Amino acid sequence: MNVTCGTDIIEIERIKDLIEDARERALNKIFTPKEQEYCESKGNAKYQHYAVRFSAKEAIFKSVSDKLNDKFELTWNDVEILNDENGRPEVKFIGKEIKGLKNIEISLSHCRHYAVATVVAVWEE
Q: Residues 57, 58, 60, 65: is their CA dihedral positive or negative?
């Protein structure tokens, strides 16, 4: 078994500015429709939820990048972060299969100013 990890932290204000400046273009490039629906349902706290998903995707890219070859491209919308029925975040890869990846776990957290995500990926040997 081989394990890789990734962590990312971001200022929520940066994501708020990005979304407000390039609204639809930024949202559609980075977030899936289901992620947008979830975040928008959070009212005034939506930017925290967008930011933590942005941070999660960065952490995922960090955790899998060493295992991917130059011909495999993973984009923002190939990764979706949604919550299960208990509110636990889950990672889904849309239309992509990452060879050798057995499991991926994610932890998300945010406060007024920052959002952080940590990812642990377990690989076949």
A: positive
Select the CATH number that applies to the domain covering 2-123 from these four: 3.10.310.30, 3.90.470.20, 3.40.50.1980, 3.40.50.2000. 3.90.470.20
58-95 pLDDT per residue, tens: 999 999 988 776 666 888 999 999 999 999 999 999 98
Is this model's pTM higher than 0.90 or not? yes
Looking at the DSSP bridge assignments, the partners of residue 116 are 9, 109
Nearest to 51 by CA among 107, 12, 8, 7: 12
Q: Give the strand pairing for 89-93 and 2-11.
A: unpaired
CB atoms within 10 A of CB 12: 22
